[in-house]
Amino acid sequence: MKHCLAITVSLAALVSANTGLAQEAAEIAQEPAADAQESDEPEYDDDTIVVTSTRIRGQLIVDQPPIAEYDEEDIAAFGGGSIADIIEAIQPATSSGARGSRGGGRPVFLINGIRVSSWREFRSYPPESVAKIEVFPEEVAQRFGYSPDQRVVNIILKPNFQSVTAEVEYEQPSRGGYSYNEQELTYLRIGEKARVNFNAEVEDRSLLTEAERGLAIEGREDEAPFRSLVSDTWSGELTANYARAFMESGDSISLNATLNRDRSRSLSGLANDGLTPLERRSETDTISLGGTFNSAFGDWKANFISDAVFTDGETQIDRFDSSGFDIADSRTYSITNNATLTGYPIALPAGDVAVTLDAGLDWTRLESADTRSDTDLSLTRRRVDGGINLAVPIAERDGALGAIGDLSLNLSAGIDELSDFGVLTDWTAGATWRPFENLTLGATYFRREVAPSLTNLGSPRIDEFNVPVFDYASGATELVTLVTGGNPNLVAETQSDWKFSGNWRLPFWEDARLNLEYGINRSNDVTSTPGFSAAFEEAFPDRVTRDAGGDLLAIDRRPITLFETRSRILSIGFNARGQIGKAPERPERGAERDAQRGGAGARGGFDPARMDAMRKAFCGVPQGEIPDLSQIPEQFRARLLDDSGNPDPEKIAAARERFCGEGAEQRGERFAAMRTAICADPPQLDGLPETMLARLRNEDGEIDPERLKALRERMCSADGAQTEGQARRGGGRRGGMNPFSRGGGDEDKRPRYFFSVNFDRTLENDILLADGGPLFDQLAGDVLGGGAIAANSARLEGGLFWQGYGLRLSGRYTGKARLNGSGLPGSSDLFFDDLATLDLRLFADLGEVFDKDDGWLKGLRVSLKADNIFDARRRVVDEDGVVPDAYDPLRIDPTGRYLGIDVRKAF
Predict the structure, then answer these.
(1) Which of 18, 360, 714, 750 has the fewest CB atoms below 10 angstroms from its CB?
(2) Residues 98 and 803 sit within 8 Å (Cβ to Cβ)
(3) Do residues 398 and 437 touch, judged by C-beta distance below 8 A?
(4) Quick one: where is this thing mainly located (predicted)?
């Protein structure tokens, strides 16, 4: 008769140990894992010990490993007030370095592994509600019906959570001049069947003028008080979110609504009468509605999304002749609908083929009007799209072709039919190879056609007067008019990219990953919004207006089409997290101490009363009915739910058989007896199965003391960790995550740290204006897009946290660069120094610091921030070493060192 210590899903283990202990016990046992949730669950003989390891509900199972992972202690350590703050803090991991301009904007977001209608749905959730965050490479986006140009962030929420948070923030530069304040109130409740969220937020920032920074343009010094460096802005927003799961059918829905109003006011100097200030006033109202529906169609998982946004904006622009003002109106209507189906219909020797089918129907309309134009402009786009993605396993470690490791192919194809651009296509092909458990290599080719946005095509014209611009032809700073808006003559872009990547989980550093990416990007007919440079004027002379004497008057910055762009980027990322110092020694749990605590196994977490309550929950209802899952510990309850968070009948039936079937009580008793034998002092090894003893023996056949010690630590030290650990981590009905609790027992009080850095090296950045030339090397200074382009850039985030105190550092680096002049007499090249800035955030959870579990100090956090603590600014000089007025450091960055205080209370 066989005796083994196996790693599988078992009810006995779920009440006997928490998840982390089960995973560690699995490593000691060195047995392969099996999943008892499947219908073909293996049978064990009477002497089998079954230990469990659970996966957090909502985690992704994909071929590509995560680039970075953050558990709830890490998330608490960031010191953020919302999920939006956390996403900003982990930006080095979420940015798509090797994709260059392809990977701009926010990443793709999932909640518990499921698509959501929009960022609005969850951005205001408090970080205490999050159990884990996973960051995956761009290729994973295709598994959910997205294009592979942004990374994927999967946010896993706690199943039972409730909180009300209020936050007040005040900030201003150390030099003064303007200030910013924000107030936010958030309610969130996550229950068994539903989650509800309400959020109200107000932001206000005051005006900053050139005069308040001591700036002026030669000959126009009297205009300094009437030219703004920072606009006066105000924003108010109300958000409501609701999600519900229907236990009977397994379906789920979510709904969200947002109302937003933005106002701004900026100054552009004086009118031509020299007396009237020129203002530009903008007001924008936005209404957003979204919803999702998740269901199952046989073996396929379905996700339906609809999102509608209406934006109404008006800009009033004072006329330069002081005769009044012009009005530029813009209204945008958009409705996005998408459906995805995911299934595993084909079985191969190395695993099942994952198939994702997606289809969409979008409608967008842009209406713009301008009092300077005789006709209004309206553009409408209807888009119908469809696509398929296949994740094909070729080889599986310890399975088919296992000698080469894990190997899979990722193939996708899509088609878009646009009412204004016709049919556009895209396709990708890639391979992911994991030759070793801790090393993953990938190569992917992307090709797609992209239409310009309606904003680029049809935005109303807006003129901004008296903008200081450095004239490369004369070497002087001139006050010119900048023209922005849309260009209806843009064409579709064709993108052709390669990406090569490597992800290495360091064997000598726990929870540390090194990520390497190399991207080759090629595009034709590229839509670009230009700046102003000598290269731009050479390429598009009709976009620059000069008077008869050659003085610069106006620049047209509306979008243009570039014939071809080429770039190559190398990106290196490193992410690490953990604790500092050696883990505290845990005392042995002997039989005498166990007896003092209520009998054998009490110290190890085997609770007969809890086991009995679980048996009653399962066995007290007729077979086939859903038991009351509120009586089940959360770690186990999560194993009984499907990917949508609903009870899975098959998993519940298997669990019921474990608890109520023949021999259930005997198995629990045997497990308790073996735990007693292991945890006795000294251990009673004669009471252990032979197979278990074999795991503890060394090559000489003797019991290895280190293996025995490790096994005792893991099996005898749970100490009710499941229940107490949830309370410490905010898993109960109330909010308040406290990873630095000073409670008694064997708690690990070591300082925690995290560190994330991303370095990008641009190896090539060229623009070709026509077939055969001319070619503009932007790294060498021939820049068309505005501003110098540095070859090197980096960003880092790091922090250290201990017993309620936190410190976080954020750094940015931009390398040296240059902008070439025209080469004509009087012209000059410009040289940009490199720039490094460092931001500091200090915070203290006062309830933890003063060891208060109730009263006003509980859940109260005070944060201090200092951005750009060394007040660094980029220095720009011409060939003579002189700083042009347009590039005065205070004009480039009028804010500099930025100080703030934030007070947050969680109720």
Answers:
(1) 750
(2) no
(3) no
(4) membrane
Helix, strand counts (H, E) of the chain:
17, 39
pLDDT band of residue 427 (cuts 50, 70, 90) is very high
Q: So what CATH class is 69-157? A: mainly beta
Q: How far apart are CA 716 and CA 24, in angstroms?
A: 12
pLDDT of residue 10: 34
As a whole number, mean pLDDT of residues 777-784 equals: 90
CB-based contact 579:751 (threshold 8 Å): yes
Residues making up the chain, counted from first to last: 907
> Lowest mean pLDDT: which of 135-139, 540-544, 608-612, 734-738?
734-738
Q: Quick one: tokens of 425?
A: 């296509």
Three-class secondary structure of residue 197 per DSSP: strand
pTM tops 0.85, yes or no: no
Non-local CB neighbours of 401 within 8 Å, separated by 6+ positions: 349, 350, 394, 395, 407
Pairing, β 300-318 against β 325-348: antiparallel
Average pLDDT (713-722) is 52
* Sequence-separated (6 or more) residues with CB below 8 Å from residue 462: 280, 315, 317, 328, 483, 484, 485
Percentages (nearest 5) of helix, strand, coil residues in the chain: 20, 45, 35
Residues 6+ apart with CB under 8 A from 892: 873, 874, 876
Highest mean pLDDT among 113-117, 532-536, 761-765: 761-765
Helix axes 608-619 and 649-660, enclosed angle (nearest 10): 120
Measure the CA–CA gap between 480 and 469, rounded to whole angstroms. 7
Find tokens 């301008």 and name the residue: 370
Q: Does 420 score more than 80 pLDDT?
A: yes
Beta partners for 309?
A: 288, 334
Q: pLDDT at position 740, please?
A: 36
Cα end-to-end span (Å), the chain = 57
Comparing C-alpha atoms, which of 799, 748, 740 is closest to residue 575? Answer: 799
d(CA 550, CA 539) in angstroms, rounded, equals 18
Which residue in 345, 341, 384 sits closest to 363, CA to CA?
Answer: 384
With beta carbons less than 8 A apart as the criterion, state whether 743 and 719 touch. no
Q: Where are the domains of the chain?
A: 5-54+581-728, 69-157, 326-423
3-state secondary structure of 649: helix
Residues 552/480, Cβ–Cβ less than 8 Å: yes
Whether omega for the bond prior to residue 682 falls within 30 degrees of 0, making it cis, is yes
* Owner of token pair 């239409």: 451
Please give the Cα distance from 900 to 907 (Å, whole number): 23
Please report, for residues 307, 328, 490, 723, 870, the alpha-carbon distance to residue 378 in angstroms, rounded to integers and kept in the order given: 22, 13, 16, 60, 49
Q: Rounded to an integer, what distance in angstroms lies between the CA atom of residue 830 and that of residue 883?
A: 9
What are the structure tokens assigned to 741, written together? 């609790």
Partners of 154 in the β-ladder: 110, 134
* 310-340 per-position pLDDT tens digit: 999 999 999 988 888 999 999 999 999 999 9
pLDDT digit string, tens, across residues 240-251? 999 998 877 778
What is the C-alpha to C-alpha distance for residues 578 and 224, in angstroms, rounded to an integer? 51
> How do residues 450-475 score in pLDDT, each as one tens digit?
999 988 998 888 888 888 888 888 88
pLDDT score of 787: 78
Query: 757: which 2 tokens?
Result: 């850095």
Q: What is the CA radius of gyration of the chain?
A: 31
Where residue 525 falls (left for φ over 0; alpha for ψ -120 to 50; beta otherwise) is left
Q: Which residue has the tokens 């608890």?
A: 659
Angle at 44 between CA 42 and CA 49, to 5 degrees: 120
Contacts of 179 (CB under 8 A, 6+ apart): 170, 171, 172, 205, 206
For residue 690, the 8-state DSSP code is H
E-assigned strand segments in 120-160:
130-136, 152-157
Q: What are phi and psi of 330, to 5 degrees?
A: -145, 130
**Which residue, 15, 2, 16, 39, is CA-closest to 657?**
39
